[in-house]
Amino acid sequence: MRPRTWVLALAAVFALLQLAGVTGRDTPDSKNYVSYALSLRGDGKREAAGATIDWVCAGRASIAQRKQSVDVLRFHAPDPTARVTERCRGELWRVVDERLRAGQTGGHIAPFASERFTRIFEVRPGYPVLLVPFVTVFGVTWGVWLTSVLVAVAGGVLAFLVLRTLGASPVVALTGQALFYVLPCGTTAMRPMTEGLMLALTLAALWGCALAVEGRGRAGAALVGGSLVLLFTVKHSQAMFLAVCLAGVCAVTAVRRRRLDRPQLLIGSVAVGGALATVVAASLLRYPSTSESVQDLLTHHFRRPDRARPWPEFLHLEVNFWVEWLRRQFWEPLFLTALVAGAWGAVRQRPAFAGFLLAAAATGFLTHAAHPDITIWGDRLIVLAWLLPVIGLPLLLERMTGARAAGAVAAPSPGLSGRDTPVTR
Questions:
Q1: Other C-beta atoms within 10 Å of 150: how many?
Q2: What is the pLDDT of residues 76-130, one digit of tens each?
């Protein structure tokens, strides 16, 4: 079969496997994005809140039923679906009704939390906008699921395109696509959150970097710039982190080589411009500041009084967090091993591109460093670091098998055509 057929086959298998969990994938923040999307399509506050609560509670009931079915002491007990659903609806509606009566009716998001906390999600319209057509046509449950599947599938395809652009053989590139699906990238991308889009758009930026390295500088720079613009709408902090890291890599490369090659010049210029534009736009739009984010962390989403001296406390927590994080990684060193192996494969096989890949992976660590809480879904915060093994491990496989020479493709034709054109590198 041609490579494009294998790409579609892998995507189809992944999508079919996701039918194992249509509900119950939401996180505590997912209801903010879903109600945002419902508001954008025209639903009122109570209507959007009601549809979102029904979706959340159906997920909780499904999880409760599955857990009880395998509980050795309670598997023969009555089905808990109705009880869990009623309790969940009561809890969420009580919060929403109290806040609506108190006058919290502004913005697009139903009042599941304080206005101050909700503001953090109001400035992330990208994912809700993507949800709108799917929840409108297919309903909330299937619309959210289908959106997640498409985002996750797109991430895998982009991993394939990055590797093909770099001259990897179809088998090596397909390995990258498969790794995206089976590593935490695929699981996280399936959650109704911004991380799936962040992964896909970061991979799109990496594709642009690969194009620039392979001689298509303008197309690559345009793709990086477009990815940064879209990332700003999804989560502006990720746009900032990626722009700064890409610019930093270009600067380090220029200092080390004492010259700035065309790919570094183009990508570096776009990255610097993207970083400056992000700062200016966030300021003009009055997005929540870094200090506000620190207060959110230290006050448990503003449920406690603001800290008088937040930064010393934050730095203290930061040190403690990374000590504990490293201890846990040493207990189960799969992640660290995958990072080292991925970095080795990229540096040895594609040194001109390796810096950009390391920069993208570094944004995962920056995101986690901005939220040094060991309890809040840490795997999803650092998930962007998994892009290093997703791209690097196939390149290490290439080094071990010598597959590159047999499958090199011309830089202008990195797509899914399957017609390989050997080139001299």
A1: 17
A2: 899 999 999 999 999 999 999 999 999 998 899 999 999 999 999 999 999 999 9
* CA-atom Rg of the chain in angstroms: 23
Q: pTM to 2 decimals?
A: 0.91
Instruction: For residue 394, give the nearest of 173, 154, 211, 204 by alpha carbon.
Output: 173
Higher-pLDDT residue of 378, 107: 107
Task: Name the token pair of 230.
Answer: 């879209």
Q: What is the 3-state secondary structure (H, E, C) of the chain?
A: CCHHHHHHHHHHHHHHHHHHHCCCCCCCCHHHHHHHHHHHCCCCHHHHHHHHHHHHHHHHHHHHHHHHHCCCCCCCCCCCHHHHHHHHHHHHHHHHHHHHHCCCCCCCCCCCCCHHHHHHHHCCCHHHHHHHHHHHHHHHHHHHHHHHHHHHHHHHHHHHHHHHHCCCCHHHHHHHHHHHHHCHHHHHHCCCCCHHHHHHHHHHHHHHHHHHHCCCHHHHHHHHHHHHHHHHHHCHHHHHHHHHHHHHHHHHHHHHHCCCCHHHHHHHHHHHHHHHHHHHHHHHCCCCCHHHHHHHHHCCCCCCCCCCCHHHHHHHHHHHHHHHHHHHHHHCCHHHHHHHHHHHHHHHHCHHHHHHHHHHHHHHHHHHHCCCCCCCCHHHHCHHHHHHHHHHHHHHHHHHHCCHHHHCCCCCCCCCCCCCCCCCC
CA distance 278 to 280: 6
Per residue in 119-164, pLDDT (tens digit) is: 999 999 999 999 999 999 999 999 999 999 999 999 999 999 999 9
